[in-house]
Design goal:
The protein has about 375 residues and is an alpha/beta fold. The chain has 14 helices and nine strands. The protein has an eight-stranded parallel β-barrel with strand order 1-2-3-4-5-6-7-9, surrounded by eight helices. β6 (about 230), α9 (about 240-250) and β7 (about 260-270) form a beta-alpha-beta unit. The longest helix has 19 residues, at about 275-290.
Length: about 375
């Protein structure tokens, strides 16, 4: 059955502006640079260590002119401690002042739309005007874990219902269910209803919605709705240009965007010498080998990865995976990012740097910032 999602008109009061979506390139970067954090946990490290790194990284990103800092939702993966993006973002909001914070993304079918509206309304109250709500339709995990999250084994239904869930979530965020709707008297709090209550002084502002994807479905939907779009180039590179083309072709101007705005997630790691970069990305690739073969674990050390005996099939996977990871010295990474931006026409690059050590990740972003001459504030 066709689904009609309401598009707010320009005559209606909008609570989101294009300035919150479009960033400004800093230094010599071709486009705004941002950060995607998976809160990775290395062997011999704890989730507490990983979260401490996230705080340090969010501060570094803010001080060096990165535009936004997003946290991804993943489940049942020992090496990824980002199962609760809203909780992590609340923690980061307490340690930063200016950088935009958001989800990259919240997997909408895993949650009731009202719950997400409440969580991100709370985040907006904590960090007014700097929260993004990025939404995905994948489970962010394996099928069994998705079934446990959703309390159902009808997993395809969640993905198929994504447009309806998105429409419902948007209604809760805007507090504008029509008269006669069963949810008309239900309000997401904190939220716009507080501005219209007696004595209310609450801002009607709410976080801008982004759609995330690794194929054409969300690309087309984002275009039709006039929403910003984030594509997962870091694990679906073969689909990047077709998805971005589809997004741009489908785009219809909305109250928040008069032209398409697309960022892409990019896996990139800079180190002080090229050999160390190869060691680090090999460890991250071994972690992916184990994940893809049903053996998820903590991110191994580079020493463990160097000693590991890869099968021919695993070696092929590693070579293919690492061909999509921009790595090397700062100059090499800068050149790779520049080339990728030119090829895709992306309006923003969101960099995820995965490594065993938090110190290596921090150093990578620092080197990238230096390579582009990003300001220090």
């Amino acid at each position: 059955m066709a689904v009609r999602i309401r598009r707010r008109t320009k005559q209606e009061a909008s609570t989101v502006t294009a300035d919150e979506i479009r960033g400004t390139a800093q230094g010599t970067a071709p486009v705004p640079l941002s950060v995607l954090d998976l809160v990775t946990v290395g062997a011999g490290r704890t989730a507490t260590d990983a979260l401490h790194t996230s705080v340090a990284l969010s501060r570094l990103a803010e001080n060096r002119g990165f535009h936004r800092y997003w946290v991804a939702e993943h489940h049942s993966m020992p090496g990824v401690a980002s199962s609760s993006p809203a909780v992590i973002l609340a923690h980061l909001a307490a340690h930063t002042d200016r950088i935009r914070l958001g989800s990259g993304g919240v997997m909408l079918p895993n949650h009731a739309p009202l719950v997400i509206a409440e969580q991100f309304g709370t985040l907006e109250a904590m960090a007014p005007g700097r929260v993004d709500l990025g939404l995905g339709r994948a489970p962010g995990t394996d099928g069994a874990t998705a079934a446990a999250l959703r309390r159902t084994e009808r997993l395809n239904e969640g993905a198929d219902d994504f447009p309806e869930q998105l429409a419902e979530l948007t209604r809760f965020l805007d507090d504008d269910f029509p008269d006669g709707h069963p949810y008309r008297r239900i309000h997401a709090v904190p939220g716009p209803v507080q501005a219209t209550s007696p004595g209310g002084v609450q801002s009607p502002h709410r976080p801008p919605v982004w759609l995330l994807g690794s194929s054409g479905f969300s690309a087309r939907l984002a275009g039709v709705l006039g929403l910003p779009f984030a594509f997962a180039h870091h694990f679906s590179a073969q689909n990047t240009i077709p998805a971005l083309d589809l997004y741009r072709e489908s785009f219809r101007p909305s109250e928040v965007l008069d032209a398409p705005y697309a960022l892409i997630g990019v896996s990139a790691l800079a180190t002080d010498d090229e050999r160390e970069a190869r060691r680090q990305v090999l460890a991250a690739a071994l972690n992916m080998v184990r994940l893809r073969t049903g053996r998820p674990g903590l991110v191994p050390t580079p020493e463990e990865a160097e000693a590991y005996e890869f099968s021919p099939m695993e070696r092929d996977f590693v070579d293919s995976w690492n061909s999509n990871v921009i790595h090397g010295t700062a100059d090499e990474v800068r050149s790779g990012l520049d080339d990728l931006q030119k090829r895709t026409g992306a309006d923003e690059l969101m960099i995820t740097g995965n490594a065993h050590s938090g110190d290596v990740r921090l150093r990578s972003y620092e080197l990238i910032a230096d390579a582009y001459g990003l300001p220090t504030t």
